[in-house]
Design brief:
The protein has 2 domains: 2-102, DNA polymerase, domain 1 (Orthogonal Bundle); 118-284, Intergrase catalytic core (hpI Integrase, Chain A), CATH 1.10.443. It is 58% helix and 3% strand. It is built from 15 helices and 2 strands. The chain has helices at residues 2-14, 20-41, 55-67, 72-93, 118-131, 136-152, 156-160, 190-202, 224-238, 246-259, 264-271, 276-280, 287-297, 299-302, 309-314, and strands spanning 173-177, 183-187.
Length: 315
């Protein structure tokens, strides 16, 4: 069994080009099911047994995850991982199992974090200066990171993967390698380039073209956890709500563009979403503002019902 799982992980990494983090998540999900089945059936699971597992066993696994209080989102992902594993072994090892296709995935409510107020984003610059008073270059680094997330709509992993070469000579666009190693082009605002230039000018570590743009105090590549801690300090200093996270800055970028007229297809390209349905979630965010625009723009909303609306429209 170990060899089959190792073969599957190698397929994910080298053929599907998934990240190590994603492949590890798949492996964890598969082991979760296999470990459960071994306990549940009180027998060691052999490769040929994979074709004999029925819907009762799969549903018992889902019920077990529910008893462990695992979130529906986590269980839905685990079931998806298991389905992918079965598709792989069907093609590679001719181990067929139709029962897995009969199992319904848990319903997962799709939620978006709240957008951050633009004034709160603006206040972050002075807040960082105060927080890192003893290390001014750290404040410029963190502000450059904030402007990248908010100004370009990058994921935190995408921002931290940028090299010095990527931002050389204040480019008008960035070539971003996103999820699934898909490349997209993102415009760069002058304010973003200015923040990056100031950071590079104050950073005590010489910029090396092929090295990470963002460095830690010790000169090592900045980690996602470090970025999260930076935003946590901002939350505490500015007394901001818990939903203010690095990802919320990307979310704020998206909702700002949408509320100012960006179309969904363009927004999908900028965010690097594989599916338009993911981008469409943002249309639910600013309904109050959209309703307000509607109330002030539509002829029916601007006039009393007893008025002659048609005459007004003709004018």
């Amino acid at each position: 069994m170990k060899e089959i799982i190792a073969d599957f992980i190698d397929y994910l990494l080298n053929t599907k080009q998934y990240s190590i983090h994603t492949a590890t998540a798949y492996e964890t999900d598969i082991h979760d099911f296999l470990n459960f089945y071994t306990r549940w059936s009180n027998s060691e699971l052999l490769p040929n047994d994979l074709s004999q597992i029925d819907t009762i066993a799969f549903r018992a696994w889902l019920a077990d995850r529910a008893r462990r209080n695992l979130e529906h989102k986590s269980t839905a992902r685990a079931l998806s991982s298991l389905r992918s594993f079965y598709k792989f072994i069907a093609k590679k090892y001719d181990i067929q199992n139709e029962a897995i296709s009969l199992i319904s995935s848990p319903k997962v409510p799709r939620k978006l974090s709240k957008a951050i107020e633009s004034t709160d984003v603006a206040d972050m610059k002075s807040a960082l200066t105060a927080i890192d008073e003893k290390n001014p270059w750290v404040a410029t680094r963190d502000w450059a990171l904030v402007t990248l997330l908010f100004g370009c709509g990058l994921r935190i992993s995408e921002a931290l993967s940028l090299t010095v070469q990527d931002v050389k000579n204040a480019p008008d666009i960035l070539h971003i390698i996103g999820k699934g190693k898909k490349e997209r082009i993102v415009p760069v605002l002058p304010a973003v380039n200015e923040a990056i230039a100031k950071y590079l000018a104050t950073c005590p570590y010489p910029p090396v073209p092929d090295k990470p743009l963002f460095r830690s105090v010790k000169g090592l590549p900045m980690s996602a956890r470090m970025a999260e801690k930076t935003v946590e300090k901002l939350r505490a200093y500015l007394q901001l709500p818990d939903y203010v996270t690095p990802h919320a800055l990307r979310h704020t970028f998206a909702t700002a563009l949408l509320s100012h007229g960006a179309d969904l297809r363009s927004l999908q390209e900028l965010l690097g979403h594989a599916s338009l349905s993911t981008t469409q979630l943002y249309t639910k965010v600013n309904m109050a503002e959209i309703n307000n625009i509607y109330a002030h723009a539509h002829p029916f909303a601007k006039h009393d019902p007893n008025d002659d609306i048609n005459d007004d429209i003709k004018e």
